[in-house]
Amino acid sequence: SHICQCTQCRKHTGSLMAHLITVTPSQLRWLSESDDGRPSAAFKEFSSSKGVYRGFCSSCGCAFTWRSDATADEIEILIGTIDEKWLIGDRTKKVSSESLAEPGNFEKVLNADEGALGREICTPTGGQMFVRNSIKGATDVRLAGKRFVEVSQKKLEVPD
Fold first, then answer.
1. What are the CB-based long-range contacts (under 8 Å, 24+) for 143-148?
2. CA 66 – CA 64 distance, rounded (Å)
């Protein structure tokens, strides 16, 4: 996964940093899909710049994807749209909110993470894009992966 701080990602997500994971179309399974395996009619895209498309749900307005004609074999999925069962497992079914408020319980539940892929999915080992847009004291944190002035394809890496 990786993080992007470009202006378009900020506007599309309403967040200072967009956290995305790259998948191939064959790795993606739409939960609401048509008979031909394509996303349901609620999934729409708009062209945010030449050859770049941002996907969203026309029913609820949720920002969902980013893709480019330059990398047609990849789709970027906004990690916050991945179902909770994949990010945190079934902890919400196993543990009540009241018990999480008891001393020591929250840490135990976080450390168990049964069935959760959140740690693997959410660690931005793919790097941070558009660090030139960092906000001092807020988004200039040093995370895993390389830092790029703009996009990784330009190879303009910020030295450590």
1. 143/3, 145/2
2. 7
Place of tokens 């498309």: 53
Question: Length of the chain, please?
Answer: 160
Pairing state of beta strands 18-23 and 2-4?
antiparallel
- Per-residue pLDDT tens digits for 55-90: 998 888 889 999 999 988 999 999 988 877 777 776
Which long-range contacts does 50-59 make (Cβ < 8 Å, 24+ apart)? 52/8, 54/8, 54/12
DSSP character at residue 96: -
pTM of the full structure: 0.76
Q: Confirm if 122 and 116 have CB atoms less than 8 A apart.
A: no
